[in-house]
Amino acid sequence: MVDAIATAAELGNQTRDAYWLIDLLASELTDAIVIAALSVSLSEESGRPQTAVCQAAAHL
Predict the structure, then answer these.
(1) Handedness of CA 20, 23, 29, 31 (dihedral sign)
(2) Is residue 30 within 8 Å of residue 48, measured between CB atoms?
(3) 19 near 4, Cβ under 8 Å?
(4) ∠ CA(23), CA(29), CA(16), 5° rounding?
(5) Residue 48: what are its φ and ψ, rounded to 5°?
(6) Superkingdom of this entry's organism (predicted)?
(7) Amino acid 53: pLDDT
(8) Domains contained in the chain, number
(9) Residue 43 · residue 52 · CB < 8 Å
(10) Where on the phi/psi map is residue 50: left (φ > 0), alpha (ψ -120 to 50), or beta?
(11) Contacts of 56 (CB under 8 A, 6+ apart)
């Protein structure tokens, strides 16, 4: 019984960690989408690629 409780607690911890990681990845993806959209907008306005913004998006 004690082993079953310990196993359930460990699975709960792993699940919590997985949800935290998913949330973190979603946040990073949101940042990348915002930077990509900004890059497209700036490129369209200036008529040339915004290299720095594109590179920043690539490193997220």
Answers:
(1) negative
(2) no
(3) no
(4) 15
(5) -140, 155
(6) Eukaryota
(7) 63
(8) 1
(9) no
(10) beta
(11) 35
Q: How far apart are the first and last CA of the chain?
A: 45
Residue 59 pLDDT: 59
pLDDT along the chain (60 residues), means of 10: 79 87 89 79 67 61
Global confidence as pTM = 0.54
Buried b or exposed e, range 2-13, using 16+ CB within 10 angstroms: eeeeeeeeeeee
Token pair for 58:
């690539």
Whether residue 59 contacts residue 28, with contact meaning beta carbons closer than 8 Å, is answered with no
Which residue range forms the structural domain that includes residue 37?
A: 2-58
